[in-house]
Description:
seven-stranded mixed beta sheet; flat
Amino acid sequence: MIPTPVFSAPARDSVSPPSDRKAYFNAKQYFDEGTYEPAVEAFQKFLADFPHSPLVPEAYFLIGQAYIQLKQYTEALDSLKTVVEGFPTVPFAGEARLQLGRVYLELGRVEEAISILEQEAVINKDSQTRQDLYAKIADLYLANREGLKAIESLLKQRQWVKDREERLPVEGKIRQVMEQHLKDRQLYKIFEQYPQSYPGDEALMRLSETAFGKGDFFRAERHLNQFLGHFPKHPSTQRARELLTGILNEIKSYRVRIGVLLPLTGQQASYAQSVLKGIQLAMEDAQGMFPEKYVGLVIRDFEEQPAKLKAALEELVKEYSSMAIVGPLLSKDVARVASLAEKYQIPLMTPTATENKLTQDHDYIFRNTVTPEFMGKTLAEYAMLKSGLKRFVIFYPKDAYGVEMMKILSEEVNRLGGEMIVAEAYPPDAVDFRDEIKHVIQLDLARYGALIPSQEPTGEQKPEYIAGFDGVFLLGDPLKTGLLAAQLAFHDIKDRTLLVTHGSGSAEFIAAGNRFVEGAILVDGFFEGSTDPVVRSFVSRYQAKYQESPDLFAAQAYDCVQMILLALKGGATRPDQVKGYLGQVRGFHGASGITTFHPKGQVEKQIFVIQVKNGKYVQVN
């Protein structure tokens, strides 16, 4: 509760002239008798007659009190704000702030109530009043669903409680808020803010217990090791060690274990988290495929460190006898452990690495990922075999990705009997492409393009450019390709099919290109808006579990685990048998398209072709 102020009129014998004091005390007599409407009227007359009286602040304060009794809170607000803002140094300004906070609450203006009460909590010199205020502020934050701020207020309350025994109820309230009102990311934020002290210890143990209870042994183990590292002499260290032992026993109680090897700390962490979410979602299917305690995950974070990467793989093999491993992400990291996978004869399936050489040189390496070759092949085949286009130009960023894709598309077009008229590079940071577009037009006019007479509305004759090509490949990020599309139209390159490789995950392409990207064809390894039942099921389950939409990495990781589970369901009981099953996968229908593995681990995927129709992405294959 907010402390209730007890107002007593100042004892001033010679400050005000008799007429001034008489008018004031006549009004106060009404107030003391509980006749608040006459009191308000009398005080207002006093203020009108004596605007410079030293008793003016008291009059405003009592007007505010009277309006509170009359439940006229808007009127009370004005009077109390006058005291707080106009007379901040009077002895009863603190009492006015308390009452103002109460009025804000009555009016439903919680944030303003919190603000004024926090001001008073800082200024008030009474320890008990400060404790009561911070407790009330914490309750208001909770009512406003701001758990972290409630914790901060309770910590301030705890700071003013000197007796250790009296602190226990406050700490109990903090624990209750953590358990009932904070999500994992908020708990971890508390730990980051208080990494060596209370309540960082409470937050970290809460995270550990919650993860353990959910069966998320990776996060439980991670948080427990952090706890032991940051609080080695804490009374709960024994509990932490018991939980770690429990995790080890739980993991080893599964008959079959799938290892996961990801850079969950470092620059790749956000991508690794998407992959991990896809993996964990796929593991939910194991519950309906196998007996209880049959298959489980062992997750290791190698923190983007090569030495830890190799050590983690050996741990997954030697300590946990993993049947297969999912990860890592980058081709260079897969290459670092490929020889170990061969040595221990354990299949390693990466959901993202694109280097072809990985699978060509190693029998136990598999890639379930969309490569630039697949993207280029699919886009060129759709353009030429489905849409009947023959001649093309290409705009590409002058970087490694742009040059590689330009070569792939040029080779595919030539292979299919088409013609790439112009391949035009642009600076990777460009937003104005007029020079590049004019150069393409110039080269096209020397081949197939034409200028025909055209009459403007003013009667002026102006030649109109007619492009000699059917399709335009646009390479780059969504913003660049969208801007390119709009600028092509400005230079009379219209009614030509736009062919784009960056996928369908961004609204930026449509926003930047506006109506000029209508009809554009895109390819992607995953399409959230697909009508395919398998994709729709994956998307809806992912969104329900994580409250966010999945990306390509999550879909490919999900399919990796699905294929490993099918190998186990098919009777594989050894890593080499899982490897043999994966090598025979043909036409696996997953969230990331149709997948086929060839004997050397090379992957062939049927990916998604998407078109912009009426300003939206629509699957067309």
